[in-house]
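> call design_seq(struct)
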């Protein structure tokens, strides 16, 4: 095969309600860019990346001179063509590379008639378990969906358990004062005996606050405490002062940082993201390093639609040392841009796709519908909160939202 064209379409996908986090909020929608890589045999491979608009579309189509005429099976060459580390000092294309890698693996699988996991060594599990990714939420435009109190949080989690069967629960924090969030987290854990929990304030706490927070939840059945503070040294200091394993998707996101963490451990569990690491294959390489040095591995969520979710499922299928449930924002979505709609949960798990390639097909009508919605609504500032228009966080943060 040879690549003959590449196209990008930005879409807006509505959420049940705006999701709050330490830097601001997702304003009731995700903005994603769908990438299509067409080969000379008429097959089209699918990719996806976060963000969107004219800049993302221009960045993707700007790769045409690199890609047209390239064999999509040569994914290792693509890494150097698009994301050479010295060139990336000036033009960081890691997330672009990931979207192209997804599409090239999809093309290979479609051409050979096999699912992507067969190209990656073969699956060791048929289904991937997921956690109920929970957020404090602003109410939606119709007034529904707010999560501000412990009671609302537990009620929402119970509805997700009843509908999807989750047995692991992750709470995104860093929004309200730490003592308030700790009590909400404790209420969540105590409402589901026998389930496991994890907490993630996105690095918003000082080291000392993170240690204090950790000591207040050490009796719970914690998978890990994710990014309680910022930086490898800060995480190392917290790790020295709590028995709870620490996890990250922010301070170990490449192989140099992974090597530093092996030499002087600061993090116990590496959250691999198929976008942030530059594709599925780099995540598998990183998982191998983690297996060698007995670091834990989980799969991180970056606000994916069905295409990237499929990459997470193929990754989860082939990594033997995936000891934790994966994260996914997926249950917050109102719809998807793949044929058949959203992939279903069963018992807190999603089945690994078995159709050729990534195993998902693009719904052209949905793509057009949500591309039009993006043109109507435009982007939103991820690092701002619609309820606090003049606010921005410091690091460590001390200016918390008022839970009352």
């Amino acid at each position: 095969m040879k690549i003959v064209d590449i196209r990008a379409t930005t879409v807006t996908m509505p959420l049940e309600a705006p999701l709050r986090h330490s830097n601001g909020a997702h304003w009731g929608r995700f903005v994603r860019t769908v990438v299509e890589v067409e080969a000379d045999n008429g097959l089209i491979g699918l990719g996806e990346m976060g963000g969107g608009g004219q800049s993302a579309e221009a960045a993707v189509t700007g790769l045409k001179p690199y890609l047209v005429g390239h064999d999509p099976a040569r994914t290792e060459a693509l890494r150097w063509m698009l994301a050479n580390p010295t060139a990336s000092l000036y033009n960081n294309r890691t997330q672009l590379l990931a979207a192209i890698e997804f599409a090239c693996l999809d093309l290979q699988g479609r051409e050979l008639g096999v699912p992507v996991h067969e190209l990656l060594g073969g699956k060791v599990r048929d289904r991937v378990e997921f956690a109920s990714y929970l957020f404090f939420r602003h109410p939606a435009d119709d007034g529904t969906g707010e999560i501000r109190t412990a009671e609302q949080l537990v009620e929402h989690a119970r509805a997700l358990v009843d509908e999807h069967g989750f047995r692991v629960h992750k709470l995104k924090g860093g929004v309200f004062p730490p003592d308030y969030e700790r009590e909400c987290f404790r209420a969540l854990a105590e409402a589901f005996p026998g389930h496991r929990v994890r907490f993630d304030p996105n690095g918003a706490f000082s080291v000392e606050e993170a240690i204090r927070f950790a000591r207040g939840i050490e009796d719970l059945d914690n998978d890990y405490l994710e990014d309680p503070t910022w930086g490898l040294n800060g995480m190392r200091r917290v790790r020295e002062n709590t028995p709870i394993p620490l996890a990250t998707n922010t301070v170990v996101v490449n192989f140099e940082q992974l090597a530093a963490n092996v030499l002087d451990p600061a993090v116990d569990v590496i959250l691999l993201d198929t976008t942030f690491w530059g594709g599925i294959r780099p995540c598998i390489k990183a998982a191998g390093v983690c297996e060698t040095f007995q670091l834990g591995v989980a799969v991180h969520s970056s606000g994916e639609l069905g295409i990237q979710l499929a990459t997470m499922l193929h990754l989860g299928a082939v990594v033997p040392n995936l000891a934790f449930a994966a994260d996914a924002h997926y249950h917050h979505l109102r719809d998807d841009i793949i044929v058949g709609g959203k992939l279903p949960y069963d018992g807190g798990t999603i089945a690994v796709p078995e159709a050729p390639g990534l195993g998902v097909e693009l719904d052209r009508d949905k793509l057009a519908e949500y591309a039009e919605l993006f043109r109507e609504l435009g982007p939103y500032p991820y690092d701002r909160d619609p309820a606090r228009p003049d606010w921005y966080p410091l690091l460590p943060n001390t200016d918390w939202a008022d839970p009352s």
